[in-house]
Amino acid sequence: KLEEGLAEPLLGKKENEDYTTKQLAMELVRLTAPDSLIVLFGTVAGLGAAVMNAYIPKFVGKGIDFAAIEANHSQFIMAMAHLIIVVVANAVLVTCRGGLFSVVGVKLALRVRERLFASLLRQEISFFDETGTGTLSSRLQADTTALSSSVGIYINVLARSLMQLGVVTFFMARASWRLTVVTLVVVPAGKFVTQVYERHYSALQKHVLTCLAKVNGTAEEVLSGIATVRAHAAERSTLAAYRSGLMDVFKLQAKQCAMYSGYAGFCVLVPNFALVWVLFLGGHLVLVGDITAGILVSFILYEQSFAACCQTLGNCVTMFSDGIGSTAKVAELMNREPRIVATNGVMPRHFEGRVELKGVQFTYPTRPDALVLDDLSFKVNPGEVVALVGLSGGGKSTVMKLLQRFYIPQAGEVLFDGRDVGDYDERWLKRRVAMVGQEPTLFDRTIRQNVILGMEPEDGVEQIPTQEEIEEACRMANAHDFITAMPCGYDTLCGEKGIMLSGGQKQRIAIARALIRKPSVLILDEATSALDAQSEALVQEALDRCLQNRTVFVIAHRLSTIQCADRILVVNDGRLIETGTHTELLERQGIYASLVRRQMQGPLDLPAPN
Ligand code: ADP
Question: For 441, which DSSP code?
């Protein structure tokens, strides 16, 4: 199912171009298409209900004529019997219609959420740099809810109203074409006002959603950094910023309220005006003997039903405008083509783990004017341990990100075994090139699930890790003992962002997560600075074990790691300025030697002096 989501085609819309209402309506039709059979049954039930509903005034009129004018008792009883049948049939069919269309709405919500999430998962990393997580989670929650509930209700109500409108008009015309013409004259006037209203309301709704996403983003940012807010006693200014965002939303919503109430009043006025008009003319027709009193009563009931349908359709427009605003936002994300495509690339039989950067030039898409890597080239042989060293901000982590194809360099190449990183099947490569970052992210799943992240059956792996393999990886990562000491062992839940575990424990699970892949290339951001001495020793021991039998890139902070590396690359301002072993570089008396001299006791990548 995820694959289906991933393969979603575009709607013929170019990036940065707004969807037209027609395209969005087509998108909704496309999303509802898998349930077309349910929609069909719902429509049949709806049509049946509309016909039954239209028969009610007819038998009421007949009943009145038989009772009050013709005084025919048996005919009157027959009319009442018919009336009871159509009333019951109407209720049954309405139940079927409502149930079926509600199911369509609920299934639509499911489909939209799944497809949207699938689309988010395939976007390139720079997309997440550009779009805040607040906006994305608002799309996933608020917009999908608005879309599916408004569209779900909309399908039901719209279908009902349209069908009823059609059938009632037909019955009205049969009762009296003169009165029908009079009734229908009022409609075009209402339609014009509706169109104007729809256009303005929809634009406003889009604006409201954007503002809400911004406010949500502010709140999320603050909540995730609550310790910083508390530490600086910045609650008041934070609340003020949040309130100001809410006020922006409020101003727009106040406008929406004014628009909606005016429109609702208009929607009530038009049909009531039509009623007076029909009674005036219809009464005249009865007086001249053109129609019976029963037919006039039937007609008034039809007219009431017609007016109710028109009013409901008007409300539908509002709901649809809400839905369309959300659909536009959701569709934009759902159909966004990632700039870095994970094509079905090659999966060679042998992978040695030779790595090469050739004349790489790179700037982050969010900061296109700041050159981060400038003509960077180096080669690393299989099995070599390479330490990247340099001042903070020099571009070391960026090199690691390019090796993982989070970003694509503007010039130059990133090669594995002589082949461009983009030529490989992404999922295949991610099992051979593993990464342990500075701040490992654990998810609110069990420890086992966190260790085998990306290697579960759904991930399409060739071989799902066995319990023995999981334990072996955890032993190597110095994690097995603390995991088994927990009450639920490998089934212990890690909590949101791994809150139940200490920094060192998280780090060791992250190491196990990399080792379980038996990677040919391992990328380590050696982060032990935030750990206490005992945790650091355990993590360090695990990291040292990782260095064997594979190509390793390590952003080295500790002198001991740097000394054991086969080669040291000194990166500064995005350029490779020195390369060699620890001893060679010391002898060269260059930047590296001065770094070592200056920071013999501490980490090597202290912030660059300004
Ligand atoms: P190092 O790992 O050597 O400390 P980085 O590779 O993290 O250096 O950063 C190199 C430069 O790129 C810095 O100026 C940093 O501000 C910038 N940078 C890092 N990540 C991003 C990002 N996601 N978006 C924009 N600029 C970034």
Answer: -
